[in-house]
Write a structure and sequence with these properties.
The structure holds two protein chains of two kinds. Chain A is α+β, with helices and mostly antiparallel strands. Chain A contains twelve helices and 17 strands. By secondary structure, chain B is α/β, with parallel strands linked by helices. Chain B is built from 16 helices and eight strands. The N and C termini of chain B lie far apart (62 Å). The chains are: A alpha+beta, B alpha/beta. Chain B: This is Secreted protein.
Chain lengths: 475, 404
């Protein structure tokens, strides 16, 4: 959290209403997102209890395990869930586009992709564990499950892993996304409560939000009071209808909140780089679909050393790119860098559009721009700069003192003797320059998996699902 | 009242604080949480006096936001029963594998079987004997217990002394000096002794999946285990033994993957021990806290015959407000009184409400109004606040520019 966000929180607390910390939406919102609210049995790692899900706010599906300790009923529930989620996921596979690649074969990318929205981080963790507990199941042998169950497990595992990838929108947690766009007047710990966070954003804080009788928890854990007084007697009673009705009362309020959260996010204009990140999501989704179609085995329990290092490096690059893109897309995010002196904005007061450097053949056009700024500039001369106003342009800091900054444009002003029209900002224009740049970073060179050094455990064993995986207890 | 009372009898004063409400013993969870917020005088006093904070919070109209689901309790109990079944046979198997020790036999003492008032003394006697025998007569584990000492042939019942083989002590009652007062711990824990080396075994019902568990659950378990290690070490030291006979590696027993099968892991709690020790040392002693309070101050709930509190809420609330709390959002998961203190922090407009991160970032600006005043420029920075004031004004300027 930055001082800017802290200030927004203070202001929210003082004014009794959440304050914006973004001016555009930084996540993709699907036309038809799949809202998924899972509930689990308290005290268990991933024993499903119920879920409310669907793409139509007027028509949620309620799936319930009437006796959560019964293993067969749990798998029946997983099969029901697969019956809703898999057609949704597979519905995006039909419509594809061919993507040409440099130094590689072209591939097919779906033109759209599924999007799952869960209430909070707990929901994400549950999706991961549910994926883990179902993807190794067998459709034959001692404890057979319907064919859709292990497939569901692989997809859920994929969504959960992709959600850890910075900037990905294939699976979102509502509280995380709201928190990225609004600062409430409560702590980030309390922001994990969807009802509380939404009430800060819409009407102002309300103690009702923390009352489980008014707003039941958004899962996956249920309210202990509800467990003791309603759910346990209903399960004991042995009536599946009663259990289902009890769980419906816990899920319906959250269902309404989820759509309210989606509406709030949809009310913000989409950031300029969102489509680009969604394109990467579509590519990743298509890759996963191809894996599934080829019949590759389910994701291993743990990554090998090389795979883990490669994944980490990819995630670090994605994080860096996500940070830069958000700053370029959103002046309020850029303001954080202006506050720390890594960016500055101001009015152009003077330009030398035909400034040149060097003589003869090495003579280069280097237009100069002088900007008057109130920002504290902490950049050294020679620093490479980028600007959100002209994203393809490169510049370099020449000097900065007393609120006057001179920059030299080095890239993206045309190849002629004079700068292309519009390439050099006009006097009076407001511009922003920053040392943050989304430069391509090469991936680190890692050995082949078979050549993993002994320091990292040596070559990992080839993963083959065994009977033990498939027969693992799920009690 | 006079100064005589002040010097003489802090214990009596703590009793006055608690009044007629029955005392409530500490558990390691409470101590771990206390150490997490050592600056909170209100909590230190209430815990020191053994006050039932949960009952107080309920009576004040701010019931604590946490309860335990019957499903979680059932599951926890079932798991513990499984691990301890047949004289801890399963636990013994895991200890053998985990520690690589040739534990041939194990004696099992359930200290809970003796009367509550005797448990602490009984625990002390058992541990003392084990430390003495283990330190002198018993072979070192490396030499092999079987080779030099005949193992006990049967699992000993409570009260029977078997000290040459491994020994498990279930429900030992330990004590720890907290803020100048002795707190008794009723740990849901087993202490294991072999060859004069003690280990704390903690049984938890959160799952370890593919070798990974929820980090916050593990951290909480490690903090609690550290309390037990410290308490056991203190006891040994008091008995004149080497406190380092208690290993800093605790044995954490959890269900593996999605099944009920237990798996044991060693967790190094040296870091938690260091934190705990430092914070217990640093904790303001209760005597000093009591000095600043009026003699007649009491947090008594005045329960009637049925145990229902009859104290007027406003009166209790005023009494509590005489002590200073140090609210932080972390309290929401650890302290029964959290909603009461949060409400108080709201009324005071304290920036503590927003969490430590914000508080740290504001660098010592305690109130919301003050911070916003500095940001708006309507308030002049006090000495030492110039830098944060400059940053806040800049931040305010940037926010305004971007939002209009």
């Amino acid at each position: 959290m930055s001082l800017l966000t802290s200030l927004a929180r203070l202001r929210a607390l003082d004014e009794g209403i959440a304050q914006p910390v973004a001016t555009v939406r930084h996540c993709h919102l699907a036309e038809r997102p799949m809202v998924f609210i899972p509930l689990k049995l308290s005290g268990e790692a991933a024993a499903p209890l119920a879920a409310m899900l669907g793409t139509d706010r007027g028509d949620p599906r309620l799936l319930v395990v009437p006796q959560p300790r019964n293993r067969d009923l749990r798998f029946a529930w997983a099969a029901e869930l697969a019956g809703v989620l898999l057609p949704y996921v597979e519905g995006f596979l039909g419509d594809t586009e061919t993507v040409e690649r440099r130094n590689a074969d072209p591939y097919e990318r779906t033109v759209d992709a599924p999007q799952i929205i869960v209430p909070n981080q707990g929901g994400m963790a549950f999706v991961r564990l549910l994926g883990r507990s179902t993807r190794f199941r067998r459709t034959d042998g001692p404890y057979p499950v319907p064919e859709s169950v292990p497939l569901l497990g692989r997809w859920l595992t994929y969504f959960a892993e992709r959600a850890a990838y910075p900037g990905s929108s294939l699976m979102l947690a509502a509280t995380d996304e709201l928190g990225r766009h609004w600062a409430s007047g409560q702590s980030s710990l309390e922001d994990a409560n969807l009802a509380a966070l939404l009430s800060w954003i819409t009407t102002g804080p309300s103690d009702d939000a923390e009352d489980p009788l008014v707003w039941p928890p958004a899962g996956p854990a249920t309210d202990p009071g509800f467990d003791a007084e309603v759910l346990a007697p209903a399960i004991e009673g042995g009536s599946p209808e009663r259990v289902a009705e009890a769980l419906r009362t816990q899920l319906e309020p959250t269902w309404r909140l989820m759509w309210q959260a989606i509406d709030l996010l949809a009310g913000l204009p989409e950031g300029a780089s969102v489509a680009q990140r969604w394109e990467q999501d579509r590519g990743s989704f298509s890759g996963m679909a191809a894996h599934v179609a080829e019949g590759t085995p389910p994701q291993a329990r743990r990554d090998g050393a090389v795979a883990a290092a490669a994944k980490l490096a990819r995630m670090e690059r994605a994080q860096a790119a996500y940070d830069v893109q958000r700053a370029y897309d959103d002046p309020l995010v850029m303001a954080e860098y202006r506050l720390t002196g890594e960016a500055f904005a101001g009015e152009v007061i003077e330009t030398v559009p035909d400034n040149v450097e060097g003589e003869g053949r090495s003579r280069k056009l280097r237009p100069l721009v002088v900007i008057k700024t109130d920002d504290p500039v902490r950049l050294a001369p020679g620093t490479s700069l980028g600007t959100p106003q002209r994203r393809t342009q490169g510049a370099e800091l020449v000097s900065a003192d007393d609120g006057l900054v001179t920059v030299k444009i080095t890239k993206g002003m045309g190849r002629g003797r004079t700068a292309a029209p519009g390439a050099v900002p006009e006097v009076g224009e407001r511009v922003c320059y920053t040392s943050l740049t989304d430069d391509f970073q090469g991936s680190p060179s890692l050995p082949e998996s078979e050549a993993t050094p002994w320091t990292h455990g040596g070559p990992p064993q080839e993963y083959t699902p065994d009977d033990e995986d498939a027969q693992e207890e799920w009690s | 009242m006079t100064g005589l009372m002040r010097e003489g009898d802090p214990v009596r004063r703590l009793e006055v604080l608690r009044g007629t409400t029955p005392p409530r013993p500490h558990d390691a969870r409470a101590i771990a949480a206390l150490a997490a917020n050592p600056g909170c005088a209100r909590r230190a006093l209430m815990d020191g006096a053994g006050i039932d904070k949960d009952a107080a919070a309920r009576h004040l109209g701010f019931p604590a936001p946490f309860g335990q689901s019957p499903f979680a309790i059932t599951r926890g109990n079932a798991f513990e029963a499984l691990v301890k079944a047949d004289g801890c046979a399963e636990l013994l198997r895991m200890l053998r594998e985990l520690l690589g020790l040739p534990i041939a036999e194990v004696a099992y003492h359930d200290v809970e079987n003796v009367g509550a008032h005797l448990r602490h003394a009984h625990t002390r006697a058992l541990i003392d004997r084990a430390a003495r025998d283990g330190g002198e007569g018993a072979p070192s584990p490396e030499a092999g217990a079987e080779a030099t000492a005949p193992p006990a042939t049967e699992t000993a019942g409570p009260g029977e002394a078997v000290s040459t083989a491994g020994t498990l002590y279930d429900h030992p009652l330990l004590s720890l000096r907290i803020a100048g007062h002795t707190a008794y711990l009723e740990p849901d824990v087993v202490a294991f002794q072999l060859g004069g080396r003690f280990r704390i075994v903690e049984i938890k019902s959160f799952a370890v999946i593919d070798g990974q568990a929820d980090p916050s659950s593990v951290a909480a378990a490690a903090r609690q285990a550290a309390v037990y290690v410290l308490a056991l070490r203190t006891m040994l030291e008091e008995l004149g033994h080497d406190p380092l006979m208690v290993s800093h590696d605790v044995v954490l027993v959890c269900p593996e993957n999605f099944a009920n099968r237990p798996v044991a892991t060693l967790v190094d709690v040296r870091k938690q021990l260091a934190v705990l020790r430092r914070q217990l040392d640093r904790m303001t002693t209760l005597d000093r806290l009591l000095d600043g309070l009026p003699d007649e101050l009491t947090f008594d709930l005045r329960p009637d015959e049925d145990g229902r509190p009859t104290r007027p809420v406003a009166e209790l609330s005023d009494a509590l407000r005489r002590t200073t709390a140090r609210y932080a959002p972390d309290c929401l998961s650890t302290c029964d009184l959290c909603f009461f203190c949060r409400d108080e922090a709201r009324q005071e407009g304290a920036s503590d409400l927003l969490g430590r991160q914000v508080r740290d970032e504001l660098g010592g600006v305690a109130s919301v109004a003050e911070a916003l005043g500095l940001a708006d420029g309507t308030r002049d920075p006090a000495e030492g606040q110039e830098e944060i004031a400059r940053l806040l004004r800049n931040a305010e300027r940037l926010r305004r520019e971007c939002l209009t």
